[in-house]
Every structure is written in structure tokens, then in C-alpha cells.
Amino acid sequence: MKGRLISRWSARSVMALLWLLHLLPLPVLAALGRGLGRVLHAVAHSRRRVALRNVQRCLGSWDASRQQDLVREHFEYLGRSLLERGVLWWGSPARLRRLIQVEGEVDLAARTPGHFMWVVPHFLALETAGVATQLFQKRHVTAFYQRQTNPVFDDAIRQGRLRFGHATVHTRHDNALKLMRDLRQGAAFLNLPDMDFGLKDSAFVDFFGHSAATLMAPARMARSMGMLVQPVLALMRPDGRGYVVKFLPPWTDWPGQDDDVSATRRLNAWIEQQVLAHPAQYLWVHKRFKTRPPGQDSFYD
After folding, report:
1. How many domains does the chain have?
2. Contacts of 65 (CB under 8 A, 6+ apart)
3. Is residue 292 part of a domain?
4. Which distant-in-sequence residues (6+ apart) come within 8 Å of 36 by Cβ?
5. What is the pLDDT of residue 1?
């Protein structure tokens, strides 16, 4: 009990600090975030090793020096994403509209009468995509989120993502019927397809030349419900002055006639293209290859 109380007190202190920091101009906050990232790169040995191992596996044609430079730059963006989270959770709608530049058909979901899915890969500005789908278009949004073990952080994430009143979130442990109810009631699905959740509802699909446990649900759901699918990419501006959320042209041929594995491979191939275009901003600290095929050794031992 004492440990949990200390943990909650520490979490509340972190949230109070984030709230104070969100009042700073974004370029100042971005500079502080880059500094935090340099510190994390120096002290977070385990996550640094995970990021480097992922980069080595996915970008094996790069020399070692370039791979290490990328990981350093990635941690600077990671530090920014942590500190700038407060702006997305507590910044006024007017401020966020100034900071977030949207490109493409942001209102496509609102203009589509049938079922709709956004596919949003795990780049470090991912939180910004959720904000953009609520501030720049009118269709209700439903999504899964990863429940946090610390209840203070969990509450902050939920409140931050629900504060505009146009979204519903469910944990992956919730009954899927809740998500289906939202979809039947007209919500658009914000889908995050590229994390390793183990083999349940997944298959080993190629990602940068390696087998990666990948959810089949996006392809299955899009096919069974006749969903229009629009890919979305959220990025931080390198100058620290805001974000760009790209609502790209919809995939009118996806999943098409492909089987689920082939359709998911096409999805992974698209994510690979985005990673190569913006390598420092992808979530390299996630153990994307944690689940291995039978008989294969761990990438991270």
C-alpha cells in the first residue's frame, strides 16, 4: 500500500509539472523536450537498447554510426512527445487549431455515410492525430487505448483524449461489442495497427524483412463491414512550432480481394514507406518484434 501511495503521489507530481509546462510557448517546450530526450538516451539503457536493436533489424543497410545517430535523434523526439503531451491534453481548442496543420481530406469521414476507419501508425505525434479527428471534422470517433498500470496516468490519458466530447475510448480488455456498438451508431474507428499484442488475433507478417506479430483485425473489419479506410500520418515539426497531420487519400482497393495476411502485408509495406520518409519519429522504443515464431530467439535478449 505504501508503495502504491508513493507511486500515485509521484504521478500526480508529474502531471502537475506537465500542466505547468503546457503554458510555455511550444518552441520553448520543444527545446526542453529535446534536452529531456538527451537525458533519457543517456540513462534509459533498456529502452535505448530496444530502439537500437529495432533500427539495426529494420534499417540494416545503414552503417552503425548512422543507426546510432538516428536513435539519438529519436530520443530527442521522444522527449518532446512526453513534454508536449500537456499541450494536447490541456491546450485550448483555439491554440491547438493554430499549432496543428492538417493536410488532405480531414472531413472525409464526416462526408462518408457508411462505416469508416482511419489507419494511424505509431509515430511519436500519434496523440495529435486523435486531437485532429475531433477538432477538424464532426463525426464521432471511437478507438482503443492501452490501459496504464498507474491509475493517475490512466485517468490523464482518458480525460485528455475525451475532453472535446466527440470521442469514445475502450481498452483492449473491454468487450469488443462496445466498439461494435459505437460503429453501428455511426462512429468512425481510429485504428492503431502496428503494435505487438502477442499472437491472439494476429499472424506473423513481414515488416522490414522480419516476421512481426501483426493484428488481422483491420483487414477483417474493413472487409466484413465494407469500411472506407483512410491512412493518417501525424508528425512533429522539426522546428518545434507545431504538428502536421496528413489525411492521405483513402484506400479504395484495400483490403480488396486479398486474404487477410496479404492485405496486412500491404498495410505493413505502407508503414515501412512512412518510416523511411520520417525515420526519427517512428516509435522505435516499442518491442515491435517481441513475439517470435516458434524456435526463433528473441531480438531483445
Report:
1. 1
2. none
3. no
4. 79, 80, 82, 83
5. 41
> Can you give the pLDDT at residue 174?
74
pLDDT digits (tens, 9 = 90+) for 204-244: 999 999 999 999 999 999 999 999 999 999 999 999 999 99
pLDDT of residue 29: 98
pLDDT at 2: 42
CA 50 vs. chain centroid, Å, equals 17
Q: How confident is the model at residue 201 (pLDDT cuts 50, 70, 90)?
A: confident
In a domain, 299, yes or no: no
Is residue 28 a part of any domain in this protein? Answer: yes
Q: Which three cell numbers stand for residue 126?
A: 500519434
* Residue 289 forms part of a structural domain: no
Q: Could you list the residue range(s) of the whole structural domain that residue 87 is in?
A: 2-281
